[in-house]
From TrEMBL:
Keywords: Cell membrane, Membrane, Transmembrane, Transmembrane helix, Transport. GO terms for biological process: siderophore-iron import into cell. The lineage of its organism: Archaea, Methanobacteriati, Methanobacteriota, Stenosarchaea group, Methanomicrobia. The complex is composed of two ATP-binding proteins (BtuD), two transmembrane proteins (BtuC) and a solute-binding protein (BtuF). This is Cobalamin import system permease protein BtuC.
């Protein structure tokens, strides 16, 4: 039976979680409102919002002649809005993937990138760019290779772990080994490639939202929207796994099957995102940390809250990337790294003082 003190603590924690999530939604909506007004086109804030409304309600909004002449609706809907929404969905997806992996592996440094999935995607993209070889062709060549290699890395991690017995340490070691392997292959390809091809590979590895589009946004949104309810449905199993394999097994959780399912879901979300954006790091590491520090470790709220933090971080980083240097857009992957490093330095100093 829960005591009165326990009920009060639980009520306070529930209120804190609700306030945190509400605050994140407000911040995210505000950032999105700012982001849609950023760009080289000479559109005011009012013009940008009016163009959004005109696209939502065709024929119901009267646009000034200057906006018609400047094709304001085309600029907002053809270039800006899908980029903003893609940043939101991609940040959300990378963050939930990181929180799931950290929970399954019980390692605060676990993420799709430290486990070699991003390195595998970079290797696949490098093969497509430098050698012109891949499972698809045309504009889908790089995307198809990046996705395929990311999923192959996830399957390899699972297979290697199965051989040695499913466990967090085994999967981490397998992921690190694959990360170095794919990084070595990518480096070799860069050494053999022409200067132009190597430059293209390097830019892809920076991570960017420049090639976002409505179809790509639709694909990523469908995958994330399908995976999140499944993760929330099995959140209790993830909570049990985070306490240890023996604890999870004693509570009736099928440990190996659950670990494989969670890792597959996180890998799929990551692969679908980074095959379109390139490697965007630190979101899957930082967002779960921030969320866990504020609202605790219950994955029923940690997963959606981490997603919102990730969306805020990636959209904020993209806003900085588009405005920091006038006339230039810094790849967003560089900005997320700059934002992530101070946070980890803070964690390092905080733990040292503890």
């Amino acid at each position: 039976m829960m005591t009165d003190t326990g009920r009060q603590e639980y009520a306070r924690l529930t209120e804190k979680r609700a306030l945190f999530i509400t605050g994140l939604i407000v911040i995210l909506a505000s950032l999105a409102g700012v982001a849609v007004t950023l760009g080289s086109a000479d559109l005011s804030v009012a013009d940008s919002y009016l163009a959004v409304l005109a696209g939502l309600f065709p024929g119901a909004v009267d646009l000034p002649d200057r906006m018609v002449e400047s094709n304001a609706v085309g600029i907002i809907w053809g270039w800006r809005l899908h980029r903003v929404l893609f940043a939101v969905v991609a940040g959300f997806g990378l963050a939930i993937a990181g929180s799931v992996m950290q929970g399954v592996l019980r390692n605060p440094l676990a993420s799709p990138f430290t486990l070699g999935i991003a390195s595998a995607a970079s290797c696949g993209a490098s093969i497509a760019i430098i050698l012109g070889a891949g499972v698809l062709s045309g504009s889908l060549l790089v995307i198809g290779n990046a996705f395929l290699f990311a999923m192959l890395a996830a399957a390899a991690i699972y297979g290697m772990a199965r051989l040695r017995g499913m466990g967090s340490e085994t999967m981490i070691l397998a992921g690190i080994a694959l990360m170095y392997l794919f990084s070595a292959v990518t480096s070799l390809l860069q050494y053999l490639g022409t200067a132009a091809k190597v430059q293209e590979v390097v830019f892809w590895m920076f991570g960017s939202l420049d090639k976002s589009s409505w179809p790509k946004l639709g694909i990523v949104t469908v995958v994330v929207a399908a995976i999140v309810p499944l993760l929330l449905w099995r959140a209790w199993d993830l909570n049990a796994l985070a306490e240890g394999d023996e604890t999870a097994a004693s509570l009736g959780v099928p440990v190996e099957r659950s670990m494989a399912g969670f890792m597959l879901a996180a890998s799929l979300v990551t692969a679908v995102i980074i095959c379109f954006t390139g490697t965007i790091g630190f979101i899957g590491l930082v967002a779960p940390h921030i969320t866990r520090m504020v609202i605790g470790t219950d994955h029923r709220t940690l997963i959606p809250a981490s997603g919102l933090v990730g969306a805020v971080l990636l959209l904020g980083a993209d806003c900085l990337a588009r405005t920091l240097i006038p006339g230039a857009i810094i790849p967003v992957g560089i900005m997320t790294a700059f934002l992530g490093i101070p946070f980890f330095l803070y964690l390092f100093m905080r733990r040292r003082d503890a």
